[in-house]
Structures are given as structure tokens and as C-alpha cells.
Design goal:
With 452 residues, the chain is mainly alpha-helical. It folds into 2 domains: 191 residues, Growth Hormone, Chain: A, CATH 1.20.1250.20; 235 residues, Growth Hormone, Chain: A (Up-down Bundle). The protein is built from 17 helices and 2 strands. A two-stranded antiparallel ribbon has the order 1-2. Helix 1 runs parallel beside helix 5, helix 1 packs antiparallel against helix 6 and helix 2 runs parallel beside helix 4. The longest helix is centred in the N-terminal third of the chain and has 48 residues. The radius of gyration is 23 Å and the shape is globular. It starts with a helix and ends with a strand. This is Major facilitator superfamily (MFS) profile domain-containing protein. Pfam families: MFS_1. One of its GO terms (cellular component) is plasma membrane.
Length: 452
């Protein structure tokens, strides 16, 4: 009987992982298609308008719905069937993509159509992210969550590496509306995989929190994700820590391209970015096969510290070989950071609260990402570049190391961002509820039935 029970568990684990891999593949294909469209539309908007402001508005129209809609989206994810939420979100994004292709084909496209379609697609993505992430907890056994997270990071890393190269090639061969229609076709791959499977039923272990918010008003449900986080010092500390360092990372990301272009050509920039992408893919593959550290919080701390150190070195030492090595190490750490963070949340939040809780994370993260985009240019142009002019006392001292002038202003902000990242990480390590979050906060383990 014991032997039969063990075989049944192994069979169920195999089936659930197979279902996850099928869904992951469909989402990967769709993600590549969406990234191709995003890349092509960004170029189309900039070439048509020649305006940096118009170009930036595309990013803002994508970020704002995530901030506004996420709280409600999280409630709907927890109330509805997560597979159908993913189907709905993919279908809505596909239709908005198709509408843009038709407008371009009929020569009726206006810039505001791009903003509107981006906002609509982003609204459906606000549903998709918490549904997909929470569904993984249902599909993947606890011992394989790190591998599943590695596969998700792999999908993102591969997309960032493939889409710009493939998009550039396709734009030289076919028209933009044909690229968008190709994206529309990739949605069918995603939808087909979702229609082919069923998610397992889970008997969730009910905590006092889930009992209190299980059936309540819509307003209570919207705030319940935040209430769950704030009631646990470790999770609240993790949220604040990740949002703070992601704010610094996003400032770095915004300024990295102009920083490198101030020192070298676009061809060299492309090589450096590609090497960074290889670092992310290598790290994601490592997690997918190895499964990650047993103490995820220490992996998170270690690679956040490494990331800050890499940014600091890029500000201090501007030679191309050191820049390339630094971006490789920085990119190598990102999947481990985000994967470790994600698995901790999946283990510590009950499945019937994950939609709301993950939506809160998404909303706050999107808000600070948008803030980083908005302040990055102002910080460089209004504060750091003036500080590094020849007649400034700060430029006289620090300029002996990093030089002076416009380029030195970006070097200085990299130094500041790198130091802030490391100091935040050191401070977070000193906060015991966060450092011991994996030990002190019990795992919330769903009990799966024997069939899908």
C-alpha cells in the first residue's frame, strides 16, 4: 500500500509538471509575439513623431493600468477560475493587437490609438500576471517551485534576447502590420494550451486570515491582500526591500543605454546587451535544472549585493571590457533575485489569497517603476550633470576618478545607485523578521487531489 501511494504521488507530480510545462510553452510563444509587437510599435511611434515625449507616453500608457487596475484584478483572480482568467486576458490582449493591425492596414491609425491599445492590453495583463503566478502554485509541487520559477525567468530572459534581434530582422523584411498579425497568431498557441488542460483542485489549508476574507465585500477583498502582507513583518519587509532595490535597478536600466552610447557605438552596445542576455539565460537554465538554494532569502541578499556592486563598478571604471563583465554578472543575478523572491511568496501566501496579494505587489512595483522612469532623466540633467561640471567643488574631487562633464554625471548616478542598493541590502539583512522569513513564517501548503 505504501509503495502504491508513493507511485501515485510520483504520477501526480509528473502529470502536474507536464501540464505546467505545456502552459509555460504557450505563454512563452505568446510573450515573444507580444515583445515583437512592442519593439515594432516603439520604433514606429518614434520614427513617425520624432518625439521622445510621445515615445515615453507608450511606456506610461502601459504602466498606469497596472497601477490602477491591479487591486481589483487580484480580487477577480481569487474569485474566478484562474485558467479562465488567463484565457480572458489572452483573448482581450489579442483583440487589442488585432485592432491596431487593422487600423494600420486601412491607414486610419493615429498615435492615440497606440496609447489606447497599449492601455487595454496592459489592463488585461493586470489580470494575467496574478492569475498565471497563482496558478503555478496549484500546478507545481512545492519541491519544484524553484525550477518552475527558473523556467519563468528563462522565458523572460530569452524574450529580451530574441525579440530585439528578431524584430529588427523582421522589420527589414515585412511590414509592421504583418508583425502585429504574427503576434496575434501567437495568442492562439497560448489559448490552445490553456483549452487543452485543466488545473488541479486544491484543498487549501485555511488560516484565520483566509477565513476572515474568504467571503466578504468587494472593498474588503481589495484591501485583504495588503492586510495579509502588513500582518506579517517578514513579508512586508520583503516587499519594501524588493520595491526599493527595484527602484534603483530601474533607474540604472533607463540610463544604461545612453551611458554606454556616450562611450562607444551602437554595435558595441548591442554586443554588451546580448552578453547580458546570455547571463540571464545561463542563470535561468541553472535554476531550472538545479532548483536553487535551500535558503532562498540568502540567495536574494547575495545577488542584490552583487548587483549593486556591479552598478558601482560601472560608474567607477568605464572601460568596455569591465562594463561587459559587470553587465554579465548583473544580468546573471536577476533571475535568481526575482525567482527566489517569487518562490518565497508562493510558499508563504495561501493559494486563495495569492491573486490579491500578488496584485498588490504588482501595483506597488509598477508605481515605483514608473516613478523611476520619470525621475531618471531629471536626476541626471538637473542634479548629477551640473555637479560634475568643471567649476563645481564636487567635480574637482570625484572628477579625478571618473572625469568631468556630461558623461561623468551618469557615472556619478551609477555610483550613487550602486551604493544605495548595497546599503539597502545590508540594512535589510539586519532586519530579523526578513532574514528569517523562511524559518519563522510557516509554509502554506495546498493539498492536491489525485487527479487533474
Amino acid at each position: 500500500m505504501i509503495w502504491a501511494a508513493k507511485n501515485m504521488i510520483k504520477y501526480n507530480t509528473h502529470v502536474r509538471m507536464r501540464v505546467f510545462i505545456l502552459i509555460w510553452f504557450g505563454q512563452l510563444v505568446s510573450l515573444i509575439g507580444s515583445s515583437l509587437t512592442g519593439f515594432a510599435l516603439d520604433i514606429w511611434v518614434y520614427q513617425r513623431t520624432g518625439s521622445i515625449t510621445q515615445f515615453t507616453l507608450v511606456t506610461i500608457s502601459s504602466a498606469l493600468p497596472l497601477i490602477v487596475i491591479s487591486p481589483l484584478a487580484g480580487v477577480l483572480v481569487d474569485r474566478w477560475n484562474r485558467r479562465w482568467v488567463m484565457i480572458l486576458s489572452d483573448s482581450g490582449a489579442a483583440l487589442s493587437t488585432l485592432a491596431i493591425a487593422l487600423l494600420i492596414t486601412t491607414n486610419r491609425i493615429e498615435i492615440w490609438h497606440i496609447y489606447l491599445a497599449t492601455a487595454i492590453s496592459s489592463t488585461f495583463n493586470a489580470l494575467h500576471f496574478p492569475a498565471y503566478t497563482a496558478a503555478i502554485t496549484l500546478l507545481v509541487p512545492k519541491q519544484h517551485l524553484s525550477r518552475a520559477s527558473g523556467m519563468m525567468q528563462l522565458a523572460g530572459s530569452a524574450t529580451k534576447l530574441i525579440s530585439p534581434v528578431l524584430g529588427g530582422v523582421l522589420l527589414g523584411i515585412i511590414r509592421i502590420e504583418e508583425i502585429i498579425l504574427l503576434d496575434f497568431a501567437t495568442f492562439f498557441v497560448s489559448l490552445m494550451t490553456l483549452f487543452l488542460v485543466r488545473f488541479p483542485e486544491i484543498n487549501t489549508v485555511k488560516t484565520d486570515d483566509t477565513k476572515q476574507v474568504g467571503r466578504s465585500s468587494l472593498l474588503q477583498d481589495i484591501t485583504s491582500g495588503w492586510t495579509y502582507i502588513t500582518a506579517r513583518e517578514g513579508l512586508l519587509g520583503l516587499l519594501i526591500f524588493m520595491v526599493s532595490n527595484n527602484f534603483f535597478f530601474n533607474i540604472f536600466n533607463v540610463l544604461f543605454t545612453p551611458f554606454v552610447l556616450s562611450k562607444t557605438s551602437t554595435n558595441v552596445l548591442g554586443i554588451i546587451v546580448s552578453i547580458g542576455g546570455i547571463g540571464s539565460i545561463a542563470s535561468s537554465l541553472l535554476i531550472s535544472t538545479w532548483g536553487g538554494s535551500q535558503q532562498l532569502i540568502y540567495s536574494l541578499f547575495g545577488f542584490q549585493l552583487l548587483g549593486g556592486l556591479c552598478i558601482l563598478f560601472m560608474g567607477l571604471y568605464t572601460s568596455i571590457p569591465l562594463l561587459t563583465l559587470s553587465i554579465f554578472l548583473f544580468s546573471f543575478g536577476l533571475p535568481i533575485i526575482y525567482g527566489s523572491n517569487q518562490v518565497i511568496w508562493q510558499r508563504k501566501v495561501p493559494p486563495d489569497l495569492q491573486g490579491r496579494t500578488f496584485a498588490v505587489r504588482s501595483m506597488i512595483g509598477s508605481l515605483f517603476r514608473l516613478l523611476a522612469y520619470l525621475v531618471s532623466g531629471l536626476l541626471v540633467e538637473k542634479i548629477f550633470q551640473p555637479l560634475m561640471m568643471d567649476n563645481n567643488p564636487i567635480a574637482v574631487s570625484i572628477g579625478k576618478i571618473i572625469g568631468t562633464g556630461t558623461q561623468a554625471g551618469m557615472s556619478l548616478i551609477f555610483i550613487v545607485v550602486g551604493c544605495c542598493t548595497m546599503l539597502t541590502t545590508i540594512a535589510a539583512y539586519q532586519y530579523q523578521p526578513l532574514r528569517l522569513v523562511e524559518d519563522k513564517l510557516p509554509d502554506v501548503i495546498p493539498t492536491s487531489k489525485t487527479s487533474l
